[in-house]
Amino acid sequence: MPLQIASSPNFSVPSLAETLRQRRQKLAQHINSPVLLWSGQTSSRNFPANVFPYRANSHFLYFAGLPLLNAAIRLEAGRMTLFMDDATPASILWHGDSPKREEIAVQIGADEALPLKELKAYGAATLPVQDAATRSHQSEMLGRSLQDLSGIDRELAKAIVQIRLVHDAGAIDQIRQAAAVTVQAHKVGMVATASAKNEAHVRAAMESAIMGHNMTCAYNSIVTVQGEVLHNNHYHQAIQPGNLLLADVGAETESGWASDVTRTWAVSGQFSPTQRAIYEIVLTAHDLCIGAARPGMEYKDLHLMACEAIAAGLVEVGILRGQPEDLVAMDAHALFFPHGVGHILGLDVHDMEDLGDLAGYEAGRVRSDRFGLGYLRLDRPLRAGMVVTIEPGFYQVPAILQDLERREQYKKAVNWERLEAFADVRGIRIEDDVLITETGNEVLTAELPTKLEAIEELVGSQS
Question: Are 448 and 301 in contact (CB under 8 A)?
Fold first, then answer.
């Protein structure tokens, strides 16, 4: 299929071209070999002309700036060559005209623009894209498997991680835009709850607010009364009095930059006493972590801080027994908070996780096999310019809490009878996007309230 521009982000030409030039120069300082990055192609849903929404590869987007379809760039010594085909008459008939190769090259500051047939591997390093057709083409052209990153491809991955971990001004501006729209979407969702019959109605209101800004969702929205299902992508259930609704919804800008926010609210506008108690525990953990996030702080320590705060709160309400630090050491907290406290955020909502743990884990560190640490996505010291999520939670996951071995293991640590009093708390998560600054941090999503009373006011404003 001839290349088309999937969308046209609102960048001025000089700012986009200069930002991309600086990124190329940084890459040249980290790797000596030439680099080829592909944008990828569409994938068919059921027949060839009916395709899934297209999303360009994030590594391509970082250096090319535009979500070009079926394109490639060659980077070498700070120079960029764009490879793409101009639209054919048939493509123009169905999809409309699009800028020519040379026009796009000027917009993104490419030094040269050539047809795709001119693309040669030249012993270049690359990273695999997600769609199978392009990945097969990459492997064939380079003469090697891309199944496991090795050799110059792995060196490229390490170099890109170092560059993308710390965001430049252009990236931060884009994330701010995504965050601002996400905040609006969540407020719309809270207000819509009063008249919503089911989860889908709230989801529709939230995603409509994102689409109205010509953005898309950065991931499959989670809008559910089953908050204990961490990544619940079903929306059919009725909203009933007494429910908590957990909404994990984030916008993505036209150029691919993401936001990732979660709020949990009582659909009636008023939390029950048990719901209030658990919400305040999660909020305490959330606020402690944000207060401590600054350059040099180990993200794993933030996670453990959240774990201990949740354990302490659960001791206070009588669900757990013992000293909080001891409960965390034995992973008792993970019965209710099994995931990590967050992740890095950028062009991908879980930024660069296509590279495995290369991005999330500092060199020499590996994932723990502990129950309470195995899902930690980020184990690095924080640096100014990083954007991370902070998202502690409480969940009553049947597969965990009804597991006989775990119940036996933690029989002294958990007051199972007391836990039954909290049956109306299936899942609570509070998540914000946090920019690490030179002196501390800035919560990019601070305009969306987290305090319980403010949440109740928003939800109850239309009831």
Answer: no
**Cβ atoms of residues 360 and 369 within 8 Å:** no
- For 329-341, b where at least 16 C-beta lie within 10 A, e where not — what string? bbbbbbbbbbbbb
Contact present, 55 and 7 (Cβ < 8 Å): no
CA distance 225 to 440: 35
Residue 271 structure tokens: 């939390």
Phi and psi at 112, nearest 5°, equal -155, 150
Q: Which helix (H) or strand (E) holds 107?
A: helix 101-108
- What pLDDT digit, counting tens, does each position of 69-111 carry? 999 999 999 999 999 999 999 889 888 999 999 999 999 999 9
Round to whole Å and give the CA distance between 101 and 228: 49
What amino acid is encoded at 169 in this protein?
Answer: A
Q: The whole model's pTM is what?
A: 0.94
Using an 8 Å Cβ cutoff, are 135 and 127 in contact?
Answer: no
Backbone angles phi, psi at 137, to 5 degrees: -65, -40
CB 358 within 8 A of CB 367: no
Task: Judge residue 171's burial from the number of C-beta atoms within 10 Å of its C-beta, 0-12 exposed, 13-18 middle, 19 or more buried.
Answer: buried
Of the candidates 270, 269, 290, the one whose C-alpha atom is nearest the C-alpha of residue 193 is 269
- Nearest-angstrom CA–CA distance, 209 and 203: 10
